[in-house]
Specification:
Helix content: 25-40%
Strand content: 25-35%
Mean pLDDT: 86
CATH class of the largest domain: Alpha Beta
Shape: globular
Radius of gyration: 19 Å
Largest sheet: 5 strands, parallel
Strand order of the largest sheet: 2-1-3-4-5
Number of helices: 7
CATH topology of the largest domain: Rossmann fold
Structural class: alpha/beta
Number of domains: 2
Oligomer: single chain
Distance between the termini: 38 Å
Number of strands: 15
CATH architecture of the largest domain: 3-Layer(aba) Sandwich
Length: 253
């Protein structure tokens, strides 16, 4: 039985897609439903599913970034990008590297996609073609909103205004987020998942589901034989662990 991971940050849309998939492909086992890109990537790396349905715009890692990392983390996984923005469709289908669903997903289109996936189940996606395609459409995968310039965080009874350029990394802490700077830590009363949508993706990179690093604070990347890695920071003594699935995001460093 083929396994599948579905990643969509809107609960109702995710539930609707799962329900449609169960009708269109009854023998497909949906092993995980994810609401953000980091969880999706880690789950795909762990389960190595036959197919992954990825919403293009998700908090933190976009579906396109997840797809690029999946090429290394789970090379046999077939990717289907799902979005409400049809400007991606023509290019994706012309290159044949990924399948594509436009919201709202019609049963006819889903049936067609399922047939394509079944036909290609024994083949491995062309990683070079997929990577080239995703690089071209990646800049359009995020909404054009002004990223945060600063946050307010608490240190004991004091509330501090912290410029984003001074942040080394963010770490999830239950419902809150710890902000780490050269001076120490402070507590931000915003969940990491919510914070992700407001950060500049060119500067802040998620390295596993609970940590986001400021790339400008990174001095070097240490690659381990296990496939994991560590980041050495400029103004903090600790090393940050990069989960194995996320190492593909640091190819250029």
């Amino acid at each position: 039985m083929a396994e599948c991971v579905v990643a969509e940050d809107e609960d109702l849309l995710r539930a609707a897609l799962v329900a449609q998939l169960r009708q269109a492909w009854p023998e497909l086992e949906i092993v995980a439903e994810c609401s953000d890109g980091a969880t999706a990537l880690e789950t795909i790396a762990e389960r190595q599913p036959a197919v992954a349905f990825l919403d293009i715009r998700m908090p933190g890692l976009t579906g396109i970034e997840v797809a690029r990392a999946v090429a290394d983390a789970s090379p046999h996984t077939q990717v289907v990008l799902v979005t409400a923005y049809d400007q991606y469709a023509v290019e994706a289908f012309e290159h044949g590297a990924v399948d594509y669903l436009l919201k709202p997903v019609s049963r006819e289109r889903l049936d067609w996609t399922v047939q394509r996936l079944k036909a290609r189940r024994q083949s491995t996606p062309d990683v070079a073609v997929l990577d080239a395609l995703l690089k071209r459409i990646a800049p359009r995968a995020r909404p054009e909103v002004a990223p945060l310039a600063w946050v307010t965080a608490s240190t004991g009874r004091e509330t501090r205004l912290i410029l984003l350029e001074d942040v080394a990394y963010f770490r999830a802490d239950q419902k809150y987020t710890v902000v780490m700077t050269a001076e120490g830590e402070a507590l931000l009363r915003t969940p990491l998942r919510e914070l992700l949508t407001a950060l500049d993706p060119a500067v802040f990179k998620q390295i596993h589901r609970s940590t986001i690093v400021n790339l400008k604070a990174v001095s070097s990347v240490i690659r381990e034989d296990s496939g994991k890695g560590q980041l050495r920071l400029r103004n903090r003594p600790e090393l940050l662990t990069v989960s194995q699935p996320f190492m593909g995001l640091f190819k250029g460093m």
